[in-house]
Design brief:
Elements: E1 13-18, E2 24-29, E3 33-40, E4 45-52, H1 53-62, H2 65-71, H3 79-99
Antiparallel strand pairs: 1-2, 3-4
Length: 100
């Protein structure tokens, strides 16, 4: 499984560990990934995603997974998240004419 956030695309970065003697050795900076279950209001069900702590804060700030996905660019999203975004967009579009 790739170490990549499904919502923001944040992935592993590389750099140097620098000792006190200024010796440099290669190292990896891993993203803070966690498995979360977010509730989609449009779908009425839980959605399981592997996202970073930063992405979770962004989802909460934007008002939920539905609002986050509808605003997000497709380039940053994983294939699963893009599929979920299309499903949510269809549900929201179907609910719009009924509300008017």
């Amino acid at each position: 499984m790739a170490r990549r956030c499904e919502l923001t695309g944040k992935a592993v970065q590389t750099g140097n560990s620098v000792s006190h003697a200024n010796n440099k050795t290669r190292r990896r900076f891993l993203p803070n990934l966690s498995e979360v279950s977010l509730v989609s209001d449009a779908l009425g069900q839980k959605v399981h995603l592997r996202i970073t702590a930063h992405a979770l804060r962004s989802v909460e700030h934007r008002g939920g997974i539905d609002a986050f996905l509808l605003k997000a660019r497709d380039v940053e999203l994983s294939a699963r998240a893009r599929r979920l975004k299309r499903t949510i967009a269809k549900k929201v579009a179907a609910a719009q004419p009924a509300a008017s």
